[in-house]
Amino acid sequence: MIRRLASGFIARLSLSLLSLLPSALLCSTANAADYPGYRQADWIAPSFTFHTGETLNNLKLHYATAGDPANPAVLLLHGTYRSGADMVGKDFAGEMLGAGQALDASKYFLIMPDAIGVGKSSKPSDGLRAKFPQYNYADMVLAQYRLVTEGLGIKHLRLVMGNSMGGMQTWMWGEMYPTMMDGLVPMASQPIEMASRNWMMRRMLVESIKQDPAWNGGNYTTQPPSLRLANTMFGIATAGGTLAYQSLAPTRAQADKIVDDRLNAPVTADANDFIYQWGSSADFNAMPNLARIQVPVLAINSADDERNPPETGTMVAALKQLKNAELLLIPASAETRGHGTTSFSKFYARQVGAFLKTLPQR
C-alpha cells in the first residue's frame, strides 16, 4: 500500500504529525551511556574483495551496539560522511531508542556500524590515501552483512533502517538479502538511479576538490582550501529546507552569519576520504532489482528534500512496483530541515513504532 500525503493537506498534516509527539519528547536528550549494554568495538575482515576486484586485507569495521544480543536485532545505517554515532545522537535516539519508544534498546539489539570509508572504519586517510580501493554502496552493504553475520553471529534482523546514504543502502539490503529481515525503513532516499541534481551537486563537490592544485592528486600535506568551501556550498544547496532558511535567515546579515559560522568551523574531514565518500554513490541504482524486495517497506521522506524532491513523482512510481510499501512524506515547515529532516525522529517515531507492530515474524 502506498500512502501519499497530498500537497493540499501539508499545513494540517504538519500540525498533526507534531501533535502526535508528547511535549516531553520534543526536548528530550540522549546519551549513549543511557542505553543498556552500549558498547563500541571493531570487527576485522581478514580479506575483503571490492566490486572492482581489488582486495584489502584486514578491513576494519567499527561499530556500536546497544541492548541484549538475545533480543530481535535492528540494523541502523548512517548518512554520507557521518558515522554510526549519529544513531545515538539526541536528534534521532532521543525519541527512538529510549524506554517505551519505537526501538527501545531494552527490547531490541541495535547494531550501528561505521561504513567503509568513515568514522573509525578503514578509510583512505589511514595511510593508503588515493590508493585505497574504490568502494561503492554494494561494498558497504556487503561489509555490513559480513559484520552482522560473521562478526556478530546474527542470522536475522527484525528491521533495517537507514538515513540518506543509509536509506539507499536499506533498499539494497532488501534486494541483496531479501529474507534477512522482517521490514525496511529507508529514509531521505529513493531507489532510483543516482542522477539529476542529486548527482550533479555530488559531482561538483568532488570536482571542486580534485581541481584544486593543493589536492595534488591526493598527496597533499595540508587539507586543500577547497574542502571547506565545497562542503559549505554543498550543505547549503542540498540540505536545510527552503522554509527553514527563510525563517533562520530572513535578512542578509543573518544569512551572512550562517555562512560565516560554517566557513569558520574547524575542518575535521579529510579531502581524500571526502572524495571517496561522495563518489561512492555514483553507480547507485536499486530500480532494476526492486522486485526482489519481499518484506514490507515504510519509506520516509520530507516534502522539502532538496536531493529527493517529491514533485518528480519518481518515488511514488517506484513504490508501485512493491507489494507492500507505504510512503510517509513529512510536510515542509520552518521546523523541517530539507534533506536533513529525517535526522530528527520526532517527525516519524510514532509511525515507525506502528509499522513494527504490523510486521510478521519470520
From TrEMBL:
<dbReference type="InterPro" id="IPR008220">
    <property type="entry name" value="HAT_MetX-like"/>
</dbReference>
<feature type="signal peptide">
    <location>
        <begin position="1"/>
        <end position="32"/>
    </location>
</feature>
<keyword id="KW-0028">Amino-acid biosynthesis</keyword>
<keyword id="KW-0378">Hydrolase</keyword>
<dbReference type="GO" id="GO:0016787">
    <property type="term" value="F:hydrolase activity"/>
</dbReference>
<keyword id="KW-0486">Methionine biosynthesis</keyword>
<protein>
    <submittedName>
        <fullName>Alpha/beta fold hydrolase</fullName>
    </submittedName>
</protein>
<feature type="domain" description="AB hydrolase-1">
    <location>
        <begin position="72"/>
        <end position="331"/>
    </location>
</feature>
<keyword id="KW-0732">Signal</keyword>
<keyword id="KW-0012">Acyltransferase</keyword>
<keyword id="KW-0808">Transferase</keyword>
<dbReference type="InterPro" id="IPR000073">
    <property type="entry name" value="AB_hydrolase_1"/>
</dbReference>
<dbReference type="Pfam" id="PF00561">
    <property type="entry name" value="Abhydrolase_1"/>
</dbReference>
<dbReference type="InterPro" id="IPR029058">
    <property type="entry name" value="AB_hydrolase_fold"/>
</dbReference>
